[in-house]
Each structure stands twice: as structure tokens, then as C-alpha cells.
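Reviewers of the previous submission asked for a worked example of the structure-prediction workflow described in the proposal, so we include one complete record here. The input consisted solely of the amino acid sequence. No template or homolog information was supplied to the procedure at any stage.
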Amino acid sequence: MTLAALADAARASRPRAAATRVVGIDGPAGAGKTTLAARLAEQLGGVQVLHMDDLYPGWDGLAEAPARLLEWVLEPLSRGAAARYRRWDWAGGHYAEWHEVPVAPVLVVEGCGAGVRAIAPYLSLLVWVEAPEELRMRRGIERDGEAFAPHWRRWAERERALFAAEGTRRRADLRVDGSVPLDAAAPPQDRVAALQLLE
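From that input alone, the workflow returned the following C-alpha cells.
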């Protein structure tokens, strides 16, 4: 499957938040969700990407973020109203400024917890991204620094528990191998890369 085909699938899906098609991209930390979301949004013509990282109230906030997404974004959109959310300030340890989420044909939501059962009724398409744990941890430490390794390990325990309870991988419409670079199967000049789908 190509990014273009994934974008076509998103466009062809049934809107489930009033007129908005919400594409959820879920999976463990470091799997490649953010990269995939950015490339998909570009393929869809520059649609908005909402990052669950902006909703978690800190390293212990994984379980709380889906409720914020529902209250601030998905429920207003399902009424045909513009939505907004408050960004979590990780350095300051508090919610900060508001960000607007206008009514649009497609909204991409990426991050751990984007596909929990409470959110599922609003999702037009759920994509699961995964990669080996060692690779994911390495990506996380390279991004955040060695000092954050204890946080990453604690987060990994909580996301495993969440995914097991929610059955997110099993319920996904598509499963993508995030260990393969998005453009590995395409020439460097080709902006439409192949996605490695999992069984």
C-alpha cells in the first residue's frame, strides 16, 4: 500500500464525527506514528494533525488523555461545531494555550491512546503502527535524551496495559510496520512511499 492509497482510503471512509473523517494512528511510543501522520496529512493536502502528546497531562497521564480528546475535540466536531484543545506544557507541568480545531473533511489524530474503545465510534479509520521494542526505545532516547529512559520504561509499562485492555491492535483497520522507513521502498525523489502492512 502507498501513502496515496492510505489517503484515498481515508477520503473514502464514512465520516463519523458529523462531516469530519477522523483517522486515528495508534501504537507504542517510538513506533513511527508521528512520521506516518505527518506524511499522511501532507498526502491529504495539509490536513490538521492533533498529537496526543499535547493532551497527556505528563508522563503519568496516558489514561486521562482520551477523555480530553473526547471532551475538547471529538464531541464538538460530532455536533458540527469547531473544537479546540489545550496543549500540555511538559516543561511547566500544566495545560497552556488553546489550539483551534476547525470543522474539516479530515482530521488525523496520532499517539498512544488514539484508538481506545471510547474514541472508536468517532473514528473513520484506525491505523496501528508497531516496531520492535529495542528500536522504539533507541528512537525515544535519541529524541529525548538518556535522562528520560526511566520515564520511557514507565510509559512502556502503562501503554502495554492500555493496549491489552483496549485490544487496540486487534481492532485496527490497518497495521503498519514502523521499523521500515517510509521511503525505503521508493526512489528518493518519489514522495509517495510504500507502507509495509502487517498480517
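The longest helix spans residues 149-166. We consider this example representative of the routine output the project will generate in years two and three.
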